Amino acid sequence: MHRAAHERLQGWVERLASLLEGTRLVAGTLELDEMAVRVEQMTAQVVLHDRGILLARKSDGSLAPLRFWGGTPDPAATLSLAETIRANLRPLLLDDVTKSRFTPLVAGQRSLVGVPLLVESDCLGVLILTASEPGAFSREDQDLLFLIGFLSAVAYSNVRHHQDLKEAQSQLLQTSKLAAVGQLAAGVAHELNTPLAAIRLAAEGAQLKADRPDIVVKRLDKLRAATDQAQKIVSNLLIYCQGREAPTHQSADLNEVLDDTLSLLRYQLNQDRVELAVEKTELPAVQGNPSQLQQVVINLLINARDAVSGPGARSRRVRVRTWRGSSEVFLSVEDDGPGVPAEVVPHLFEPFFTTKPVGKGTGLGLSVSHQIVARHAGRLEYSDAGPGARFVVCLPIVSAG
């Protein structure tokens, strides 16, 4: 009896140790598929079984299989049993499915134990195990599986919150981009009008000089150059407006990003009488998405324009500079505005924080820019520039290997 009790106790210790290690692994991931794999691994170490099914609640409230192992279950039978467990919010233990009102989930599987994935009475899914032998699961197995279900529910909840956060961040980026696009529209329209007018004049001139091939050729050259200019403007705008999930692992030239950005903002800066000074040095490539990096530069330049256009500005001068270090490239935007008060500096990169008047700013530009640069393994830093402000983008250089 003592030996049996000792063996039984030893078995419990081993199962609880497996449960503890499994809990650490399941809680250590925020990826849905990886979480499901780890739930399977933990369950296999704690409760002996032949087949398993993990179902999760979708956004519309219905249950759907997230992962199954050991064989493909019958979909209708699985959902029927899972909905019963979810409705009752209690575990279900069947010594022989064939003698119950339920249909076997897999042919030849007799025993069944299922538990809800509960977080504060909220059922996020169902975990079901089956075995071929009748009476294969005990009440102890049910209790351990119920605990696994709770741990799985917490992990699944964390994964969903993480996914919601990523989606919110993407929406935040798009909101900031749309706000900037609204400010770009007038400038882009003006920039396009110039080459389009040149195209029209060149085409009309070529028609009038059909008897002079040499003049026609010159007019067509002007037409082609103006077309290229218009195409470049449209191309820059399309690059800026491309999908929010574009990859950041492509090669990018920070000087080209700056040039393309200035082509979009030139009219707007001229209209606001901003004195722009640009100093560029030759730069090596960085890993980055041009659209997202362009959004950073646009946000910084728009902030600088607003700073030198408001009260307290020393001049309307904005300085943009690029240079390289030993392992990074840098782009700085410095203005002659009133600067940033010391008490405001800690909040500069917080979402929706702005010192601009109501209706003048979204409070998203610096926050989104900070997130973009961080996703590029870089830094966005602020420093005082006398009375003005200076923001520096730091990005790692692509290694030759």
Structure description:
The protein is of the alpha+beta class. The protein has 2 domains: 2-159, 2-Layer Sandwich (Beta-Lactamase); 248-401, Heat Shock Protein 90 (2-Layer Sandwich). It is 50% helix and 19% strand. The chain contains 8 helices and 12 strands. It has a 5-stranded antiparallel β-sheet with strand order 2-1-5-4-3, with helices on both faces. Strands 7-9-10-12-11 form a 5-stranded mixed β-sheet. The longest helix is centred in the middle third of the chain and has 70 residues, at 139-208. The N and C termini lie far apart (67 Å). The model has no long low-confidence stretch (mean pLDDT 80).
Please summarize what this structure is:
With 401 residues, this protein is of the alpha+beta class. The chain has helices at 2-27, 32-46, 75-88, 139-208, 213-240, 254-271, 290-309, 365-375, and strands at residues 51-57, 63-69, 92-94, 111-119, 122-131, 251-252, 275-279, 286-287, 317-324, 328-335, 379-385, 388-396.
Annotation keywords:
401 residues; alpha+beta; Beta-Lactamase; Heat Shock Protein 90; 2 domains; 5-stranded antiparallel beta sheet; 5-stranded mixed beta sheet
